[in-house]
Amino acid sequence: MQAATSVRANAFPSLTQALLAVESVLLGGGQRTARRNAWTAVLEDRRRARDRVEAQHVLEAVATRSS
Q1: Which one, of 20, 15, 13, 49, lies nearest residue 35 by Cα?
Q2: Measured CA angle at 44 (ends 18, 61), to 5 deg
Q3: Cβ 32 vs Cβ 39: under 8 Å
Q4: Cβ distance 13 to 21 under 8 Å?
Q5: What is the pLDDT of residue 21?
Q6: DSSP state of 12
Q7: Rounded to whole angstroms, how far apart are CA atoms 5 and 20?
Q8: Model confidence over 11-60: pLDDT tens digits?
Q9: Phi, psi for residue 28 in degrees, rounded to 5
Q10: CB-CB contact of 32 with 23 (8 Å)
Q11: From CA 13, how far away is CA 21, in angstroms rounded?
């Protein structure tokens, strides 16, 4: 039964693979690269924003303790 499950799982592409295939058909190489670069920049901006919020909380905690 284990083998049948893995064969079935490999028979169908994942949603990610399917979306990448559609993307490659609809978008040219340059557009695809630009979209991925933009998404990477969005993720990096979100990470930096989380880091800023965390740093602000730490600074506020330190200021509260010392006053």
Answers
A1: 20
A2: 135
A3: no
A4: yes
A5: 84
A6: S
A7: 24
A8: 677 988 888 888 788 877 788 889 889 999 999 999 999 999 999 999 99
A9: -75, 170
A10: yes
A11: 10
Structure tokens at 16: 């990610």
The SS3 assignment for 24 reads helix
Say if residues 59 and 51 touch (Cβ distance below 8 Å): no
Position 61 scores a pLDDT of 94
Phi, psi of 20 (to 5 degrees): -65, -40
Q: What pLDDT, on a 0 to 100 scale, did the predictor assign at position 50? A: 97
Rounded Cα distance between 47 and 50, Å, is 5
**CA distances for 57 relative to 47, 52, 63, 65, angstroms:** 16, 9, 10, 12
